[in-house]
Amino acid sequence: MLSLKSVTKKYGEIVALNEISFSLGDGEVLFVTGPSGSGKSTLVKIISTEILPDVGEVLFNDLNIGKFNNKETLNYRKNIGVVYQDFKVVGDKTVRENLEVVLAVKNVPRDGWERLVAQVLEEVKLPGKQNHFPAELSGGELQRVAVARAIIGEPKLILADEPTGNLDWDTGWEIIKLLMNAKPQKTSVVITSHNQDLIKKSKHKVIELNGGKIV
What residue ranges of the chain have pLDDT lower than 50? Predict the structure, then answer.
């Protein structure tokens, strides 16, 4: 499903990623760990096409995403969901409206929105929160909204960049469990985290980065 081949990215003289290669199959969960500055966020940005690698290839279902035109890039982004450390939930929209933005982008028929929103909020343990605004929610609840936004519309790939960084251990573990379990069948997940205890408890495949290299 996802394959990186000798991916390298530099920012000036700084080598953020240095010949990174790995593969991820359908339905697999991968943790990417390492200290701050090791290249974790750069990796997520490259897979999400926010930036492009200087060298190497990122293949999604055997297609090189670096060669996509604008329309192909947009279609690719419709197949992925992203969870950020700082939530990025729109503050002046309700939980329901935040989720409906994704459904609109994915061209999901409007008559199914109410059911899908209620269903995904049930999955992330936020039933009845449709009409709440972000200011009315805790940090853990906001991250659950971010997870709901990532999984609604059944993406093929979920990217989570330090999704537990602003949370306490117990809440962080609940978020990790949601990402591992509350996802459509055959959806693959990449989670970056420096929390070794959470990673060990998850018992999934792990890649460690240091200085932009896999160690």
Answer: none
